[in-house]
Write a structure and sequence with these properties.
single chain, 50 residues, mainly alpha, 44% helix, 0% strand, globular, Aminotrans_3, pyridoxal phosphate binding, aminotransferase, transferase, PyrdxlP-dep_Trfase
Length: 50
């Protein structure tokens, strides 16, 4: 949830956010917003549309 909230803060304070920064091999959470930023294993995406 921390990643999701950080994304919301960025979206609220940027004119037009286009990019996100993530670290390869890191786990950023299972929320839809966090999953949209990373290329994690398919098991982390289970239940979410692609």
């Amino acid at each position: 949830e921390a990643v999701e909230n950080a994304m919301k803060i960025c979206y609220d304070n940027c004119e037009q956010p286009k990019y996100g920064l993530t670290f390869e091999g890191a786990f950023h959470g299972r929320t839809l917003g966090a999953l949209s930023l990373n290329r994690s294993k398919s098991v982390h995406r289970r239940g979410f549309p692609e």
